[in-house]
Amino acid sequence: MKTLKNWTLLEKTEHGVTLVLDTNADKKPHHFCVSVLENNLIRILIKKNETLELDRTWSIAPVLNNQTIDVPFEGRKRTSLEGFSCPAFIFEQINGQISLATTHLKVVIHQPLYLEWFYRKNPLDAWQFLANDRKTGAYCVGVTDTQSAHFMQRELNDQYYGLGEKAGDLNREGKRYEMRNLDAMGYNAATTDPLYKHWPFTITRRNNISFGIFYDNLATCMIDLGNELDNYHLPYRKYTAEAGDLNYYFFVGTREPSVLETTKAFVRLTGKTIFSPKWSLGYSGSTMSYTDAPDAQVQLQQFIKLCQEHHIACDSFQLSSGYTSIGTKRYVFHWNTQKVPDILSLSSSFHHAGIKLAANIKPCLLHDHPKYKEVSEAGLFISDSEYDKPEISIFWDDDGSHLDFTNPKTITWWQDNVTTQLLEKGIDATWNDNNEYEIWDKNARCHGFGKPIAIKLIRPLMPLLMMRASFEAQQRFAPNLRPYLISRSGCAGMQRYVQTWSGDNRTNWQTLRYNTRMGVGMSISGLYNVGHDVGGFAGNKPDPELFVRWVQNGVMHPRFTIHSWNDDKSVNEPWMYPAITPLIRAALQIRYQLLPYFYNILWQAHIDDEPMLRPTFLDHEHDPKTFAENDDFLIGKDILVASVVEQGSRKRCVYLPDNTQGWYCYYTHQWFAGGQSITLDAPLERLPLLVRAGSILPLSKRIGFVDQNQDDVRIFQVFPMQDNSISTGKHFEDDGISNAWKTGGSLQLTWTMHADHTHIYIDIQKTGDYQPAFAQINFILAKNESRILMINSECTDTFS
Question: Are 288 and 330 in contact (CB under 8 A)?
Answer without folding.
Answer: no
